[in-house]
Amino acid sequence: MNDKLKNHSLRLALILAAFSALGPFTVDMYLASLPQIMDFFASNASMIQASLTASLLGLGLGQMVMGPLSDRYGRRTPLLISMILYIVSSFGCALVPNIEFFIVLRFVQGGAASAGLVISRAIARDRYNGVELTKFISLLTMISNVAPLISPNAGSAVTSFSSWVGVFVFLGLLGILLTGITTWGLEESLPVQYRVQGNFKELMRNYSRLFHDRTFMGYALVNGILFAGVFAFVAGTPFIYQNIFGVSPGIFSILFAMNGLAIMIGAQIVKRVAGQLTERTIFRFGLSLSFTSTFAILITVLSQGSLLAVFVSTFLFAVSIGIIGPVSITLAMESHGQMAGSASAVIGTFQFVLGAVTSPLVGIAGEYSAIPFGIVIFTTSLLAIVFYIVLIRKVETVGAVNNTKKNT
């Protein structure tokens, strides 16, 4: 790849990473403001928690709508409409009179932000395929992974000189910036002749085709299940590090950020070795690392091991996510270029839906027990291997046997 193409890829990756970052910013920026919001609306913790759940549901379910719409109408138009909706809902959250309207607007805001997640992956598939797609997705992963690291701190910084309202004003301004980028900085990547024709009902039939594709479902489920392990990590480690091991909030922030760095390292490994090793070989290595590291986590928490052992094991698990994430997306979407939006939507929705299942489970034994966390995160890796064997390995084995018969 020459310098001009590299610069173009980096520019595109930066733009798409900005849209991918909208999800983490939408969810994480207001977390430090939850007590303020509860007091402002004279509400209770469960209603405030419902606003977080609403945004996550919007992010998950919105992708299932935005994906096929982008296959039908192109990438820019649905993205532009979604960004305008994001601006309205963000400023609306800052102005609502009661908690009920706030929850509704959080759902709308999450649904609008979902367009950035699903369409950014679809644009990557439009532009690249094969090894180049793997390398680009790896680059996108490295850049966009900065967002979950800085969004909570960004929210705290905003509330340090304003109220919680300032967070949603900031998000509204971010939506304006992304609307400008969509209008003047992002070219349409899906030509009219390659768009899915027909009505919305026909677009929905694409989901049926995807769900009946064993290989696609295998990679999408493995991706989603392992990201559910990431959600378990996010939900469990604040209590494990601070309540069980007694680390300070400052040290916890550093340890948490290190796992974001680990995902970047995994993505960089993929970018380096793609083209030298096949995507399937890289995928299997990542899957093996995931299983080994989560088994180490389980053994450590069962034996009440040290903080260092827990940190190293979770760091390696994060590296495996950085490896598996880009490769699984490439392998899942490689044969569904015309339905890239719908395929991307399924992958993204699995992540949020399965993450919503695992997150509450890590705390079922209380905030001073790490055993549920160890069991849940190991189970995600175990299930990922099971789905790989049942849905992917068997298909690849049958295909190899059939090719051998044809050649003899």
TrEMBL record:
It comes from Paenibacillus alginolyticus. It is found in: Cell membrane. This is Bcr/CflA family efflux transporter. Belongs to the major facilitator superfamily. Bcr/CmlA family. The keyword ATP-binding does not apply. It is a multi-pass membrane protein. InterPro entries: Efflux_drug-R_Bcr/CmlA (IPR004812), MFS (IPR011701), MFS_dom (IPR020846), MFS_trans_sf (IPR036259), Sugar_transporter_CS (IPR005829). It comes from the Bacteria. The chain crosses the membrane at residues 12-33, 45-66, 78-97, 161-186, 216-241, 247-270, 282-302, 308-333, 345-365, 371-391. Keywords: Cell membrane, Membrane, Transmembrane, Transmembrane helix, Transport. Residues 12-396 form the Major facilitator superfamily (MFS) profile domain.
